């Protein structure tokens, strides 16, 4: 027997496998021919596909879930970016609107200042406010205008509401304003309704002035408008000073004391108006003598309406000496 020859059992197994393969091929060819001619396997395939559709759906479910998650994440990122862009645009629009509103308010305030000039046609100068000091013992404004801008000591200062104060010091680039509310300031005023002449004093408060020594017989009421009387020549007549807010007897019960609400906005605003028509009044003879004695010129020229009045000097004797 040759060495490569296998056992009879092995050869019979190979022959059986070959015969089974040929039988399967013949069956497959027969089914193909019958399906091609009769089409009876089409219904079997349709039913099989219908039965396997849930399996296909379950098999594709993870992929669909992944696609949806990616789409949602991309959509969320896009919406977050668009939201950020819109928020920035909204903030920019809000800032622009705020600037426009500020400009509109500034325009209205400047129109009010221009409208504050009386009908008499007083010459005025617009001056920006550089600094403000509202200490109870020192009520001052510093203006961004000085002597090189034509500002002079003694000029009246007003705003859209009324009288603010007067210039007391001038430098080349700045000027100092003594406010009506300064404790050392006094203004001759009158009641617009009756013409009663009074004096308004500062109390160191930006929201209050004081009317002192009001005679009990004077026709002064709460709510009366108080304006400058023009006495002394420092402040032109007719400028609003304030409104009487309260009246009460003083300690002696012989006079009334009134609280006056200022007409000017002393604690706000960015600009004021300087009156240029009225020249500084001439100094009294006593003040001139004091200035000649070595006092500063500004102090000598300051009339009694810019500070609380000092006691009047005794009248000179008119009788000739014997």
TrEMBL record:
<dbReference type="InterPro" id="IPR007221">
    <property type="entry name" value="MreC"/>
</dbReference>
<feature type="region of interest" description="Disordered">
    <location>
        <begin position="298"/>
        <end position="322"/>
    </location>
</feature>
<keyword id="KW-0133">Cell shape</keyword>
<feature type="compositionally biased region" description="Pro residues">
    <location>
        <begin position="310"/>
        <end position="322"/>
    </location>
</feature>
<protein>
    <recommendedName>
        <fullName>Cell shape-determining protein MreC</fullName>
    </recommendedName>
</protein>
<comment type="similarity">
    <text>Belongs to the MreC family.</text>
</comment>
<dbReference type="InterPro" id="IPR042177">
    <property type="entry name" value="Cell/Rod_1"/>
</dbReference>
<feature type="domain" description="Rod shape-determining protein MreC beta-barrel core">
    <location>
        <begin position="131"/>
        <end position="275"/>
    </location>
</feature>
<dbReference type="InterPro" id="IPR042175">
    <property type="entry name" value="Cell/Rod_MreC_2"/>
</dbReference>
<dbReference type="Pfam" id="PF04085">
    <property type="entry name" value="MreC"/>
</dbReference>
<keyword id="KW-0472">Membrane</keyword>
<comment type="function">
    <text>Involved in formation and maintenance of cell shape.</text>
</comment>
<dbReference type="InterPro" id="IPR055342">
    <property type="entry name" value="MreC_beta-barrel_core"/>
</dbReference>
<feature type="transmembrane region" description="Helical">
    <location>
        <begin position="15"/>
        <end position="34"/>
    </location>
</feature>
<feature type="compositionally biased region" description="Low complexity">
    <location>
        <begin position="298"/>
        <end position="309"/>
    </location>
</feature>
<keyword id="KW-1133">Transmembrane helix</keyword>
<keyword id="KW-0812">Transmembrane</keyword>
């Amino acid at each position: 027997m040759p060495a490569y020859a296998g056992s009879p059992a092995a050869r019979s197994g190979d022959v059986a496998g070959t015969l089974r393969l040929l039988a399967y091929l013949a069956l497959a060819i027969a089914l193909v021919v019958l399906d091609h001619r009769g089409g009876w396997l089409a219904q079997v395939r349709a039913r099989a596909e219908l039965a396997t559709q849930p399996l296909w759906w379950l098999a594709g479910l993870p992929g669909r879930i992944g696609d949806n998650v990616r789409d949602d994440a991309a959509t969320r990122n896009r919406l977050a970016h668009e939201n950020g862009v819109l928020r920035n645009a909204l903030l920019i629009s809000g800032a622009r609107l705020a600037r426009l509103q500020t400009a509109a308010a500034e325009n209205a305030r400047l129109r009010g200042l221009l409208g504050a000039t009386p009908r008499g046609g007083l010459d005025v100068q617009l001056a920006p406010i550089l600094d403000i000091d509202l200490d109870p013992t020192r009520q001052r404004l510093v203006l961004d205008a000085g002597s090189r801008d034509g500002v002079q000591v003694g000029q009246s200062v007003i705003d859209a509401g009324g009288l603010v104060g007067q210039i007391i010091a001038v430098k080349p680039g700045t000027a100092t304003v003594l406010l009506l509310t300064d404790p050392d300031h006094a203004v001759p005023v009158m009641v617009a309704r009756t013409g009663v002449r009074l004096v308004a004093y500062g109390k160191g408060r930006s929201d209050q002035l004081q009317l002192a020594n009001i005679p009990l017989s004077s026709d002064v009421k709460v709510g009366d408008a108080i304006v400058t009387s023009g006495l002394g020549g420092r402040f032109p007549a007719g400028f609003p000073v304030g409104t009487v807010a309260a009246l009460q007897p003083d300690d002696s019960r012989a006079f009334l004391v009134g609280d006056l609400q200022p007409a000017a906005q002393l604690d706000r605003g960015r600009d004021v108006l300087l009156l240029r028509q009225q020249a500084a009044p001439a100094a009294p003879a006593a003040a001139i003598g004091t200035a000649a004695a070595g006092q500063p010129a500004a102090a000598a020229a300051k009339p009694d309406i810019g500070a609380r009045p000092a006691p009047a000097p005794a009248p000179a004797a008119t009788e000739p000496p014997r």
